[in-house]
Amino acid sequence: MEIQLWREILHPYEQAVSEIIVKFVCLRDEFRKNNIYSPIESVTGRVKTVSSILDKMQMKNIQFEHLEEEVEDIAGIRIICQFVEDIERVVDLIRGRSDMEILEMKDYLANKKKSGYRSYHVVVAYTVDTIHGPKKLQVEIQIRTMAMNFWATTEHSLQYKYKGEIPEHVSTRLQKAADAIFNLDNEMSQVRAEIIDAQNDMQIRTGIVKEILSAIENLYKVASEREVKKVQDEFYRIFRLNNLYELRRFQKQLDILSEGYRVQSVDSELHTSAEQ
Ligand code: 0O2
């Protein structure tokens, strides 16, 4: 195949990867903005390198005419979750999308690979709009925990080094490490609820503090310096208590105080215009 044709073939896949990353990052941010735990921790993506595509074509005896049909992972998205339980939730999110059609699912969690590899793969059909019109592509979405990802990325580099012929003593170690990863994920699942609670609290706390600071900033415009200082000192005192309930209570009091100043300023504006 002519070398410049690669660029033409791969460009829509680059577009698909960029678009899908943005879409999943937006989903994650929407969860977080609504103070809901996000099953998506992070999202990355890549277009398979030409050398990796050629390797796969050679290994699987794929003809150029069938390249886009048979190499399903030219566009690859990786979604990292904190807990094993989140993986199914991400699969459900993909199922519910109107812009992706699931073509195939590979459950390497229930059926781990001989290497010890664990991950959940979903191959979807995704359409990009190009200058030549819409183009439907296959995209492989890999969903795995942070722990599984640590194992897989490390093992992948060894596979590259040994060209698939990893020495037995190394692969035995990797199997052991894969078992340890499995146990680690199980252990983390046991404290999942605790961790999610703590993370939600932290997120809520950050949001409240942000709003309090902006309310205090606004107070500077309307209240006396002495009063703002008093409010500020009280804020630092409450903040040190590390108690979400107290922080919420303080925020409410601050809202009432700010509202009082707002009413006062509207009143005085009305007076001034009545006197004129
Ligand atoms: P890259 O581009 O470097 O990531 P199959 O014939 O269906 O069994 P196939 O066609 O390779 O296998 O598809 P599969 O299983 O979905 O694998 C595609 C990708 O999954 C691989 O891409 C890896 O990213 C990952 N993967 C699969 N098996 C393993 C494994 O044993 N170890 C690790 N670390 N990753 C794995 P590529 O082709 O490696 O290339």
In short:
This protein has 276 residues and is of the alpha+beta class. The chain has helices spanning 3-33, 50-59, 67-70, 84-95, 146-162, 168-190, 192-222, 225-241, 244-275; strands spanning 42-47, 75-81, 100-107, 120-130, 133-145.
List keywords for this structure.
Beta Polymerase, domain 2, 16% strand, alpha+beta, 5-stranded mixed sheet, 9 helices, binds ligand 0O2, 276 residues, 2 domains
Total strands: the figure is 5
- Largest β sheet strand count, sense and barrel closure: 5 strands, mixed
Q: What Rg is obtained from the alpha carbons, in whole angstroms?
A: 27 Å
Q: Strands across the major sheet, in which order?
A: 1-2-5-4-3
Query: What is the CATH top level name of the largest domain?
Result: Alpha Beta
Helix-strand pattern: HEHHEHEEEHHHHH
The CATH topology of the largest domain is what?
Beta Polymerase, domain 2
Distance between the termini: 83 Å
**What's the helical proportion of residues?**
55-70%
Q: What proportion strand? A: 15-25%
Uncertain stretches of 5 or more adjacent residues: none
Coarse structural class: alpha+beta
What's the domain count? 2
Task: Give the topology.
Elements: H1 3-33, E1 42-47, H2 50-59, H3 67-70, E2 75-81, H4 84-95, E3 100-107, E4 120-130, E5 133-145, H5 146-162, H6 168-190, H7 192-222, H8 225-241, H9 244-275
Parallel strand pairs: 2-5
Antiparallel strand pairs: 1-2, 3-4, 4-5
Bound molecules: ligand 0O2.
Ligand 0O2 is lined by residues 48, 52, 56, 73, 106, 113, 115, 117, 121, 140, 152, 155-156.
Question: What do you see in this structure?
Answer:
64% of the residues lie in helices and 16% in strands. The chain is of the alpha+beta class. It has two domains: 3-171, Beta Polymerase, domain 2 (2-Layer Sandwich); 195-275, no CATH class. It is elongated. The model has no long low-confidence stretch (mean pLDDT 92). Ligand 0O2 binds next to α2 and α5. Ligand 0O2 is lined by residues 48, 52, 56, 73, 106, 113, 115, 117, 121, 140, 152, 155-156.
